[in-house]
UniProtKB/TrEMBL annotation:
Annotated PROSITE patterns: HTH_ARAC_FAMILY_2 (PS01124), ZINC_FINGER_C2H2_1 (PS00028)
Pfam families in the cross-refs: HTH_18 (PF12833)
Disulfide bond as UniProt keyword: no
Protein name: Transcriptional regulator, AraC family
One Gene Ontology term of the molecular function aspect: sequence-specific DNA binding
Domain HTH araC/xylS-type: 178-276
Species assigned in the record: Bacteroides faecichinchillae
Coiled-coil ranges per UniProt: none
InterPro entries: Homeodomain-like_sf, HTH_AraC, MarA-like, Znf_C2H2_type
Transmembrane segments: none
Keywords tagged on the record: DNA-binding, Transcription, Transcription regulation
């Protein structure tokens, strides 16, 4: 019985198709990607040619054929092609872990490199990359296939690269994840909406939502709403700020609107919540 996925099947219109995050690209000599803030994590694998990259980790570093780097989201990155280059660009939000235990061991026990150097593409990794050129070239690909290739990449990295090599991947990911968390915790009280938070950090709304979900493991709106409720309840119970001040502090247009929010969220009006605390 023939498989449903035959060569004449239109995979681009399949409901299982997702945007491809593994891109096979050619750049001519002189191609310049200006400095930009990365909105995703990505690997840059150079198969042919020479590419000059510039970032905090790889300042003025020449990538030659058979080398690759990882650049984490939030970092600034610039690229200049010195000789015609063939590359594979693999972007991701959350890296498939080669091993939770080993990842944590590297984070805690293996120091971050003082000087970052590109990693060599092993023969095993090259086989994986050559395969992606052959059948992962469409704008959309099967979700299951993309997941398998991510897992295969994680296995190759974990099996054929040393702890020292992997430290050049693990520490930047952790660093920028931590800096994103710091940005959120320092600034979420300063804004009223997800849109304002995204603008403050220089992100698009969709990028902020995507990164936030991967770092905090819940949608940003729900997280901000939960923190807002915690702050309101804390102010009502543990402060002497007037109910009117609390109302406008958290961006409510009127006291009736604030009261309705409290009744829906906490089962009681702001005044009753405060009186219950005093009575207790």
């Amino acid at each position: 019985m023939p498989s449903i996925c035959q060569s004449n099947w239109d995979c681009q219109s399949c409901p299982k198709a997702v945007d491809n995050t593994i891109t096979h690209i050619f750049h001519h000599r002189g191609f310049h990607l200006p400095v930009r803030k990365c909105e995703e994590n990505f690997f840059l694998f150079v198969l042919k040619g020479d590419v000059l990259v510039n970032s905090q980790e790889y300042a003025g570093t020449m990538l030659t054929a058979g080398e690759f780097i990882l650049q984490a989201f939030g970092s600034k990155f610039e690229l200049l092609v010195m000789n015609d280059a063939e590359c594979i660009y693999y972007s991701f939000n959350q890296l498939e872990l080669f091993c939770d235990f080993r990842f944590n061991y590297i984070m805690e026990k293996v120091p971050s490199p003082l000087i970052y150097s590109p990693l060599k593409i092993t023969s095993e990794l090259l086989c994986l990359l050559e395969g992606t050129k052959a059948y992962l070239c469409d704008p959309k690909v099967c979700r299951e296939l993309l997941s398998l290739k991510r897992k295969e990449l994680a296995f190759v990295l974990g099996y054929y690269y040393s702890d020292h090599d992997l430290a050049t991947l693990v520490h930047p990911l952790s660093k920028y994840t931590s800096s994103f968390q710091f940005f959120i915790l320092q600034n979420y009280k300063k804004v009223k909406t997800v849109e304002e938070l995204a603008k403050l950090g220089g992100y698009t709304v969709s990028t902020l939502r995507r990164i936030f979900t991967n770092v905090f493991h819940e949608p940003v709106y729900e997280w901000m709403l939960a923190r807002r409720k915690e702050g309101i309840l804390d102010d009502l119970i543990n402060s002497k700020i007037s109910i009117s001040e609390i109302c406008y502090k958290y961006g409510f247009e009127s006291l009736p609107h604030f009261s309705n929010f409290c009744k829906k969220s906490f089962g009681s009006s702001p005044r009753n919540l405060r009186h219950k605390q005093y009575a207790g």
